[in-house]
From TrEMBL, chains A, B:
This is Arginine biosynthesis bifunctional protein ArgJ. Heterotetramer of two alpha and two beta chains. Its EC number is 2.3.1.35, 2.3.1.1. Catalyzes two activities which are involved in the cyclic version of arginine biosynthesis: the synthesis of N-acetylglutamate from glutamate and acetyl-CoA as the acetyl donor, and of ornithine by transacetylation between N(2)-acetylornithine and glutamate. The lineage of its organism: Bacteria, Pseudomonadati, Nitrospirota, Thermodesulfovibrionia, Thermodesulfovibrionales. The record marks 190-191 as: Cleavage. The keyword Glycoprotein does not apply. Substrate binds at residues 154, 180, 191, 277, 398, 403. Its main location: cytoplasm. The record marks 117-118 as: Involved in the stabilization of negative charge on the oxyanion by the formation of the oxyanion hole. One of its GO terms (biological process) is ornithine biosynthetic process. GO terms for cellular component: cytoplasm.
Amino acid sequence: MNIMKTMRKDIIFQPKGFLFSAVEAAIKKPGRKDLALIFSEIESVISGMFTTNNIKAAPVKLDMKRIKSGKGQAIIINSGNANACTGRQGLMDAMEMAEMTANALGIKTGMVYVCSTGVIGTLLPMERIRPKIKELADNLGKNSINDVATAIMTTDTFPKVVSKRIRIDSKTVTISAICKGAGMICPNMATMLCFIVTDANIDKSALDNALKKAVQRSFNRITIDGDMSTNDTVLIMANGLAGNALIEKNSKEFDRFANALSDITYELGRMIVKDGEGATKLVEIEVKNARNEEDAEKGAFAIANSMLVKTAIYGNDANWGRIMAALGYSGIAIKEEKIDIFLNGLKIVNCGMGMGKDKQANKRLKGKELKIVVDLHLGRYAAKVLTCDLTEDYVKINAEYRT
Amino acid sequence: MNIMKTMRKDIIFQPKGFLFSAVEAAIKKPGRKDLALIFSEIESVISGMFTTNNIKAAPVKLDMKRIKSGKGQAIIINSGNANACTGRQGLMDAMEMAEMTANALGIKTGMVYVCSTGVIGTLLPMERIRPKIKELADNLGKNSINDVATAIMTTDTFPKVVSKRIRIDSKTVTISAICKGAGMICPNMATMLCFIVTDANIDKSALDNALKKAVQRSFNRITIDGDMSTNDTVLIMANGLAGNALIEKNSKEFDRFANALSDITYELGRMIVKDGEGATKLVEIEVKNARNEEDAEKGAFAIANSMLVKTAIYGNDANWGRIMAALGYSGIAIKEEKIDIFLNGLKIVNCGMGMGKDKQANKRLKGKELKIVVDLHLGRYAAKVLTCDLTEDYVKINAEYRT
């Protein structure tokens, strides 16, 4: 267990009017909390972003419909089972979870959102979930947001929680967020669940906008294995209990809120990559001076997803040829003779050719964090992507049934 | 060494008028032959296909210019160094290799093609290559095509040679081919060199056409790690010494020749995947009844390149949820509720849902070869892709410098 080593020691602020609860339902196996509830004492404004995978889990389908109302009050989450590829029964199970939760809380069913994460293709053990929902509602307030963060973990090795306080017209506004990551992480928020709660008083379209921006530069710029999941969901609930004047788009207050939200999701994104399955290194890849932002992003992702680059980094091998090859097949505009590459600030490629500094560079690879900068010298656009190395442990974790 | 276990025992036919040679030049390290020559006694018609990576090795750039003449007589190949990302000096080295070879053989420089494979970003050790070129020419005829196949190996564990004889207007026409593969194998022939020699008398545009077809359904439909190299080259020389009447397009003779060539490249493609770095299983993935061939191919590649699918296969884990997820993010047209999936003939997914046959399916995964069929029930197009599993050994091989 490296939970204690890597868990953040920051104080976690709790926004007003939110309560949390987590119980054990033995969904995959007994011995851990795997069913959790987030509840706002009053109806909240809600925004969400969902997987772009064409195969969507049942709860994702449900939430995508529900979120059109713009309102929400509770989120029930289970780990251990994704409720994906489960057909009509899966959808009925998700709806039943929402309905039972609404009844236990005395709120409307449409106010309850459902999220699941875990194995695909197995029906939820509803017989074990049903009897626990009352307990979940009764426990509200007895648990903290950290307990929910722990309950939603799958192959994560530590819970991920970040919070921030900002002042908006002399009121204290709190934003707190949790997420889970680990495997199947790739652009577009793959196998990731993220729940953000805030007591900010904010207009629905401003909230949508702030969330979209935050996700674009954080969760959509991380990759572990290039696989995108069926269940990715980011939900943010804002209940307005901070008492600030309504935040609307195109205002200083909006910018302050949106920046704080972006900082939070960026930090959560870093935590997810740090905790990538089997990962030993956190790697930031920046492609700069590209012809346009799309090229910069595509180039950075090609490098970040290259199995050969990822294994070289694991091997402390400054094999920049693999970086060049990935850039080459990414399909973006490049001029080989203009490319410079830097490893943690050390220039190792100049005008497309090695500088004979491989031994020095190999040493720089031995740290836990690595920054690769590729300068294309073609334009003025840049993009950064976070990834991790590829290790034997990644294979072991994902080939767990090997006999 | 598992060379003896896996090497094909077939008789290798040699086409008329071709001579082979291989010597030791200690390009990367001493103790093995790493410089080879293929020579036709008379000028040949030549066709080629090259990497689509925007970063191309120096010899690739040279050959792409040279092949416009449509003629060739010799190919010099080195392993241990890719002569890629080596700037102007790299191009001069490739040209010098061609020129020295032409001089030693007494032919025109423009008739010599150069291929390199190995590490990117290091200049060729020309001081060790130069003195060996004369020896290479002198040895012609003392070595066989198998010796060339062995000399071009990098991380390959066995040489790859296939040959075939066909009758064309009562003449015997022989086609023999060798290739190397191993890492950086992905669509578009990544880090692969393939040399085909034939004594067929064939028209240049017919040869181009037959090669393109053969490569499209073989080397362009295999993937090991999704990485595409800077050096991929397929060259075919036809010297006409079989004495058959000229083969032209749109004839029965052309079809016979093209089919034989396709069989050869398909067989070589299988060998490359079987010999994928660290691979323990050969996996054929077929997506059928897609809306169009592009969708079928894209879907099959998404599954074949998924690290989660590849590790599950390694782990003998019939985790069809990972197959569904890969299909979902491939971006092709699908209807979840129409998808059927078969593992070695056993139906495990029916109408998008599991059939509870996971234990039976896990057993079927224990063999060395696996066939996954995905039926989309949307149209009538299909595509097959060959790949292998992802193992700890792949990571070890590619993180070799780890200390």
